[in-house]
Amino acid sequence: MKGLILIYGIAVGGAVGSLVNPAIGVLVYALFSTLRPQAIFAFAGPMEGLSQLVAYPMLAGWVIHGLGTWRFGRARAIVILLLAHFAWCVLSALGATDQISAWDYVIERSKIVAAFMVGATMLNTERSVKALAWVLVVAHGYVGFEMNLQYLLGNNQVALYGFGSMDNNTFAIALVSTVGPAIILSLQAPKLWQRAIGLAAAALTVHTVLLSFSRGGILALVITGVVLVLVLPKRASYLGAILVTALVTLSFMGPELRTRFASTFVSAEERDYSAQSRIDLWADCLESMGRRPLLGVGPGNWRRVAFEFGWPQGKEAHSLWMQTGAELGVPGVVLLLLFYGVTIRRGLQMLRVKDDPWVASCGAYLVTSLVGFMVASQFVTVVGMEVPYFTVLVGVATLRLQDLRRQEAAEPVPDPAVAAWAPYPGLR
After folding, report:
1. What pTM was computed for the model?
2. Residue 12: Cβ-neighbour burial (10 angstroms; 0-12, 13-18, 19+)
3. Nearest to 379, CA basis, from 322, 314, 298, 304
4. CA–CA distance, 28 with 144 (Å, rounded to integer)
5. Among residues 54, 130, 325, 413, which one has the fewest Cβ atoms lying within 10 Å of its Cβ?
């Protein structure tokens, strides 16, 4: 009951605070999209309206504050790619056969884009950007705690039902997207209690991925570990910690999970039905792209046309990239790939920054989260997942603030005598 009261208190506080500072609304909206209180507190009845309670004041506050600052600097390309991808969704929806599904898709995507743009233009302090980074990590850690608690009570909810309208595979990818960031934040944190929270969130998240029995999730976890080794400073303490974590993770996997994960890489003759069906679905998506290369079948419409290829109607493609290509055409999937790809490239550039520890840490945050997500998304349809968008938002806001600081440092100090005549430019 205390947690429920806290959630409603956060919602009301976020709604009121958004009118004063829309960045508050972005933080609360990101919290709810990750925590999904309607799933954790399902016993309390429908709670879907909580996000709307925050979203509308957030947008109103954004308008009141003149839509924020649109000087994105090196993040400009990332923002343009997202807006272009969304515009292509709208264009594709116009020609879709199932207009209801198409526009439902567009509406859901518009919520993510709107929250992203509010954050990109209103997160004006490093403190607010770090707060968003921590919100994503801690919220997933708390969900992991709840899922582990259910498991100890004899109910492996993650493997059986997933979480918050996500199946076990989709939820596993969302979790893995914050494992690397949790470790990065814990290493970057100046205080011991912050480091403890970050490591606890990472541990809970990793174990919840194992509970999901998701091959895509395990693969993403392995990739995240490799990327961590590559981006972290080559200190014995860091490498030792990663090695210990890897060994502990392997010990928790158990023979059944190890066997299931190993089946991902077997030959075509040895694949189980689930693995082979994914290969067949991807081939059919490619064929669909060949038939409709420009606009695809329309957003949210692959499930409607899957029967044309012999699948039951409503069948997902089990690949974000393949399903996006089939639904939005080649331009739609290319724009989405570039959106994440350019962000990773910027993250790699940020890793080389020596004079600002947060910028370098943010680069590692982006790379460890998005590389694993992009690879694992080849095996799971995660169209509506908000976490990677908010992760990119952390990078966009950090880049914008860094560029603004550089511009301010490069501007010459005005001559007081000249400044005194500023109202009268003709007399300077």
Report:
1. 0.88
2. middle
3. 322
4. 19
5. 413
Question: If you count them, how many residues does the chain have?
Answer: 428
* 8 Å CB contact between 69 and 43: no
One-letter amino acid for residue 20 of the chain: V
Taking CA atoms, 157 is separated from 39, 62, 165, 166, 177, in Å, by 11, 38, 12, 12, 20
Q: Are 178 and 201 in contact (CB under 8 A)?
A: yes
What pLDDT, on the 0 to 100 scale, is given for residue 53?
85
Contact between residue 231 and residue 350 where contact means Cβ atoms under 8 Å apart: no
Question: If DSSP states are collapsed to H, E and C, what string results for the chain?
Answer: CHHHHHHHHHHHHHHHHHHHCHHHHHHHHHHHHHHCHHHHCHHHCCCCHHHHHHHHHHHHHHHHCCCCCCCCHHHHHHHHHHHHHHHHHHHHHHCCCCHHHHHHHHHHHHHHHHHHHHHHHHCCCHHHHHHHHHHHHHHHHHHHHHHHHHHHCCCCHHHHHCECCECHHHHHHHHHCCHHHHHHHHHHCCCHHHHHHHHHHHHHHHHHHHHHCCHHHHHHHHHHHHHHHHHCCCCHHHHHHHHHHHHHHHHHHHHHHHHHHHHHHCCCCCCCHHHHHHHHHHHHHHHHHHHCCCCCCCCCCHHHHHHHHCCCCCCCCCCHHHHHHHHHHHHHHHHHHHHHHHHHHHHHHHHCCCCCHHHHHHHHHHHHHHHHHHHHCCCCCCCCCCHHHHHHHHHHHHHHHHHHHHHHHHCCCCCHHHHHCCCCHHHC
State how far the Cα of 220 lies from the Cα of 227, in Å rounded to an integer.
10
Where exactly are the structural domains of the chain? 1-67, 74-401
pLDDT in tens, 116-126: 999 999 999 99
Between CA 182 and CA 142 the distance in angstroms is: 12
Q: How far apart, in whole angstroms, are the C-alpha atoms of residue 426 and residue 339?
A: 47
> What would the two tokens of residue 314 be?
């409503």
Cβ(295)–Cβ(303) under 8 Å?
no
What pLDDT does 421 receive?
A: 44
Cβ–Cβ < 8 Å for 69, 119? no
User: Using 50, 70 and 90 to split pLDDT, how confident is the model at 266?
Assistant: very low
Which tokens go with 226?
A: 């490799």
Please state which of the ranges 71-75, 129-133, 238-242, 344-348 shows the lowest mean pLDDT.
Answer: 238-242
Average pLDDT, the chain: 84
Query: pLDDT category, 34, cuts 50, 70, 90?
Result: confident
